[in-house]
Amino acid sequence: MYPNQQPQAYPPMQPNQMPQVQMYPPPPPAMGQPVVVGIQQPLVNNTNLNVCPYPCQAYCGTCQQNVTTIITNKTGTGTYQWCLLLLFFTGCCCIPFCVDNCKDKIHQCPRCNSQLGYFEYKLC
Ligand SMILES: [Zn+2]
User: In the chain, what is the greatest distance between 2 CA atoms, to the nearest angstrom?
Assistant: First the structure.
């Protein structure tokens, strides 16, 4: 019927295009966020305070010097656990509240009283 039928034109082979990696521009400086200006407090690793139930050497970022912490006892979870345990076994639950060893310890700076660490008393 159509002797001059043109061969079907195939679309040219697409070159195997690599997916274009979109280059994101570096994020613009965050607006609105307060820019911390001034003396940056040195990062102090006071984590040892959290495992130390007695006064320790620590760096106070507020005073910017090494201090020996003072310990403040605080009735913590472990104290209440003791309380329940003793109540269960002995019927008396007031002992842990009198025993400082059964309490959480707050490490405070002796100069500025800021909290430098927290020792959480655990039952086990
Ligand atoms: Zn201090």
Answer: 109
Q: Give domain limits for the chain.
A: 47-119
51 C-alpha to ligand 1 centroid (Å): 20
Rounded to whole angstroms, the Cα distance separating 92 from 80 reads 12
Q: What mean pLDDT is reported for the chain?
A: 77
Q: Annotate 84-113 with b (16+ C-beta within 10 A) or e (fewer).
A: eebeeeeeeeeebeeeeebbbbbbbbeeee
The answer to pTM > 0.90 is no
Residues lining ion ligand 1 (Cβ < 5 A) are 60, 62-63, 109, 111-112
